[in-house]
Amino acid sequence: MANMKMYSIPDRFRRSENLHIVFWLLKDISWAMLWKPIGLTMLAPTLILAIMITIRTKKLKSEFFHNLAVVFWITANGYWMITEFFWPEHDSLRYYSAIPFVSGIVCIAWYYLVELPKEKKTEKLVSITIDVPETIVHLARRD
Question: How does pLDDT run across 21-71, given as a tens digit for each residue?
Fold first, then answer.
């Protein structure tokens, strides 16, 4: 038996995260194939779900800051896609997508450089030991 820290996500969160990935992939495939209507249509639900996921995780700082970075990432991608769709002759417009990309990096940096050290300082750890069969541990480590 092994002692592993386990993290689980409620089913309702997992379903919306999985749907979010489908929308995101459809948006990016449409962008790559220059399918403007589908790409533009998929941008809205992709961004809305990313915002909803971020709001749902606001009490879990690690999840919140990572999900906020994803919101900025999708915003940057959406802006970039729109400029390529409508103003391909103005390639320099895409450089403005660096603003939300950098904002996402700032979110991640803030979490790891400020929030996580604060959490570790004030953390009062309550540990529960659960015996997990080695086969389950092996499966979990493959992911």
Answer: 999 999 999 999 999 999 999 999 999 999 999 999 898 899 999 999 999
94 is written with which tokens?
A: 């895409």
> Is pLDDT of 120 > 70?
yes
Q: Where are the domains of the chain?
A: 11-142
User: pLDDT value at position 49?
Assistant: 95
**The token pair that represents 22 in the structure block:** 């489908």
Q: What does the alpha-carbon distance between residue 64 and residue 77 come to, in Å, rounded to a whole number? A: 20
C-alpha 115/C-alpha 110 separation (Å) is 7
Structure tokens of 9?
């996500």
- Cα–Cα distance measured from residue 139 to residue 46, given in angstroms and rounded to the nearest whole number: 31
DSSP-H helix ranges across the chain: 11-32, 36-56, 61-86, 98-110, 116-122, 134-142
Q: Is 132 helix (H, G, I), strand (E, B) or coil?
A: strand
